[in-house]
Protein 1
Amino acid sequence: MQNEKGTPVAAISGAASGIGLALATLYAQRGVRVIAGYYPQDPHDPALASAQVEAARGEALWLPLNVGSTASVDAFIAQGVQHFGRLDYVVANAGILRRAGIDEMSDARWDEMLNVDLTGVMRLFRAAAAHLHSGASLVAVSSIAGGVYGWQDHAHYAAAKAAVPGICRSLAVELAPRGVRCNAIIPGLIETPQSLDKHNSLGPEGLAKAAHAIPLGRVGRADEVAKTIAFLTSEESSYLTGQSLIVDGGLTVRWPDYGESMQLASKRCVVSGAASGIGAAIATLFAREGAHLILTDRNSEHLEAMVTRCRALGVPCFGVVADVGEVDGATAGVDACLERFDGIDILVNNAGMLTQARCMDITLAMWEQMMAVDLRSVFLATQRALPSMLAQRWGRVINIASQLGIKGGAELSHYAAAKAGVIGFTKSLALEVSADNVLVNAIAPGPIETPLIDGINQAWKTAKAAELPLGRFGRADEVAPVALLLASEPGGNLFVGQTLGPNSGDVMP
C-alpha cells in the first residue's frame, strides 16, 4: 500500500475512452494519482489508454469495473484505496447509450440503461463514501439529453441522465457536514466514441450538422469537459456544491427562433471585400439570417466596424485583414473559417478592384494586378474551400463578376477580361462539383453605387445612368438578396453555373 498523503487520488469510472480518458490524462499531468476503471467488454483497449496516461507522467491503477454490478464497484473502490491509501475525488463517468423508441422499449432495455447510467452512479458514490475525508469531491456526468432536453428514441437514456443531478443535489446536502462536495456536469455535444456511434447516437455527419446550431460553431472536445470536472474537484471550487454545470458551447442558452426561420442559421460563411459596398451589404444580410461569418478586407478600420455591426446582430463574426491580390491573402478567409468553425459552407468571392485605362495604356503590371485581384483570388479561395464542402456534400460558392464581363466596356478591357474569366470559371467548376451538392454560381451586377466606382469619371457615370432602363445605378443592398437566394435552401437549390444579373436592365441575355 502506498500512502503519499500529500498527493490526491481520483477514482474514475469509464476511464478508457472519451471524457474519462481525457480526465485521467489531465489528472496525470497535474500530479493526481488515478484509480482508472474500464469495462472489459468495451472495444476500447485499456493498454492504449494506460500508455496515454503514462505518457503524461502520471501514476494510475487500471482495474476492471462494471458499474452495473455492486460487487464489481465495491471491489474497484476497495482495491484502489488499498493501493493508494486514500481517496479524494470520485468521478462517475461510465455510461451506455442505446437507441430505442418507446414501441420497442422492453423492460430489459429500460432496466439495463438505468442500472448502468443511474444506479451505477449511486453504487460508485456509495462505495466511496466511507473513504472520503473533508475536502473530498464527487462529480457525476449527466447529459443535456435528459439534463436539459428530451431526445427522440432515447427516453431511457434521458430519464437516467435527468436523475443524475438529483442524486448530486441530495448528496451535496447529506455530505456537506462531512466537508464533502458533490456536483454534476452536463456536457452538450462532445466528440467522443459514444457520440460518433451513428447507430445509437448522432455519428460524424450528425455531429457536423448539429454543430451549426451551437453558438461557438463547433462540437466540444473531451478535454474541455475534463477541465471542467477537474475544476469541480479542485480547491478553486471549494464553495461550489449541489450544482449542475452545463458545458455545451452555448447550445442550451441560444434563443430559439419562433418566427420565420433564419435562412442561413449557423452556416459557416466567408465574404471577401466585406468592409464596404456589395461585400458589406452581403455580410450584413447574411448576419441577419444567422450565418457565422469570416470577413476579409484590406481596410482594417472599416473591417473592424463591419465585424462589430454583424456581431451586434447576434452571430459569431471575425475579421481577417488580407489582400486577395497576394496568394496567402486570397486564402486567408477560408483558412480562418476552417480553423475557427471547423469547416465552410458558403464562400462569397466578392473582393475586387476597378481601374480605368485605354488598352494601349495598360501596363503589364496593371494587367497582372487586375488578374491577381479579380480572377486569381477567386480560383485560390475556391480551391481551398472545396475539400471541406465536398467532404460534407454541401457547399455554395458565389462569385461576384460584372455585367462588363458579358458586354465589355471601353477603357475597361483588363477589368472586363477578369470578370469574364470569373464567369467562365464559375460555369466550368459548376460542372465538376454540382453532383456533390456543391453549387457554384455568379452574380454580374450592373453599375452599383459603391466605393469601387469612385475612380470612374463622373461624365461616364451620368451618361451611363441615362442609358439604363431603370434610369439609375443600383444599391449594394439590392444586390445582397441575390446572394442570399443563391446561398439559401430551397431558394438556391436549382441554380448551377448560372450568372444572375441585377443590373437595372443594362444587360438582357
Protein 2
Amino acid sequence: MQQAWLNGEWCKLDEARISPLDRGFLFGDGVYEVIPVYNRKVFALGPHLKRLQHSLSATRIPNPYTDDDWRKLCHDLIQRHPWTNQSLYIQVTRGLQPKRDHTPENCLVPTVFAYSNELTPLPESLLQTGIRCITVEDIRWMRCDIKAITLLPNIMMKMAAQEAGADDAILMRNGMVVEGTASNVMIVESHTLVTPPLDHCLLGGITRQVLLHVAKESGLEVKEEPISLLRLHQADEIW
C-alpha cells in the first residue's frame, strides 16, 4: 500500500485530498523535486535539497521545513515502502487561497505533498540500442532553472515526439541545444564530454552534476559550452 505525506499527516496515497482552491491546482504555483533511492539509500540528497531551496527562493515560496525535516521525511518515505529502489516525489505549492487571484496573498501556508514509487531499471535492450529523438523548438518560459510544477510545454513537446514516432525530444533555442523534455543533454566528441552551460533556460540536473564530476575524476575532458544542431548531428554519442 502506497502512503503519502500531506501537510504533516500520513495517509493512503489514493485517499490524499487537496483543496481545488490550492494555488498549485489553479495556477501551477509550486515547485517539486524527484529524488532517486538506490538500495534504500537516497542519492545526492544534499544537492536535491539545495535545488529545492533555489526553486522556493526564486518563486518566493517560504521553505516550510528545515533540511533535517526534509531528510527525516525522505527516510520515513523509504521505510514505509518495500522497494529496494524508489523514486521520491516532493511538491511544495504556495498554498490555499480562498479567492482565485493571480496575486498571492501574504502569509499563505505552503502545501507539502510527498510520496514514493518503485524505481524500475530501463530495459537492457533500450540500453543497448538507445532511443529515438527529434529536435523541437523550446516553447517554455525563461526561468527553466526553477523546477516548477507547470510542465505543460514539456508534455506538449513529449507528445510531439511520440506523434513523430520518436521516444523523446531534444529542445532547441536560437539554434542551440538546451536539454531534453525531462533530462539534460550531453554529447561525446572523441574523448571529450560536452554539455550546454547552465543558465536560466535549463535545469541544473543533479545527475548532470554528478556525471561531470565523475568524468573529470576519470580523466575525461569536460566542456560546458553551446552545442549547435550541426554539432549534435556530428557527435559520436548523445546522452
Protein 3
Amino acid sequence: MATPTVGYTSARGLAQSIRNLLVYKGVHFQDKRYEFGPAPAYEKQGWAADRASLGLAFPNLPYYIEGDVRLTQTLAILRYLGKKHGLDARTERDAMELSLLEQQAHDLQWLLVLTSMNPNTTQARESHEKKLAESLNQWQKHLKTRKWALGDSLTYVDFLLYEAFDWNRHYAPGMFEGRPEILDYLKRFEELPKLKEYFASDKYTKWPIMAPYMFWGH
C-alpha cells in the first residue's frame, strides 16, 4: 500500500485537520512542507515545480496523494478520509446533519482566515469578536447534549471543528471563558489516543497558524 502524502506549507493552516485525522487513525504518511521564502513574495519553495508534476486536477495546497487518489481542497480530502476510515455518517439523517455541521465548522475557521487578511487589525478584531460570540453561543448550545459534533461518535467534522475552535482560542482566549461545553470538547479531543502524544511531540506544529504575509497568526 502506498504511503499517503499530505502537502502544505510550513504553517499549521488548512492541512492540520487532515494531519490530525491521519495520526488518530494510525496512518503513516509523508508530511510534505513547503517553506516560505523571504519577503515580500514569500514564495512557497519547491511548490511551483511540484504543482506542475504531481498530476493534480486542480493544483492547490493542501493536497493529498495516495496511489491513484490525488485530491486538493481541505473539505474534499476530509470527506474522503472520513469515508475511508469510518469517520463518516452512518445514516441518511446523520449525513444530512453532518453536512450542515461541516459547513458551520468551515465558516468558523474561515472567519479567522478572513480576519487575518485585514490590515485594519483593530476594526477586524471588533468585527470578528462580535461574529465569534454568536457562533460560540450556537456551538455551546449544540454541545450541551453531545460528546462530539454529531453525537456520541467521532467524525471527520470534529477534526475540522477542533482546528476552528483552537485557532480562535489563540486569537481571542477570553471569548472561551465561561463556556465549559466547548472547553470540555477541546480537552476531550486533545486527549484522544495517539493525538495526545502527537500534540506533545516535535512533529506537531502548533504555531504559526497562518502564513507570514497575514496580519495575525505567525
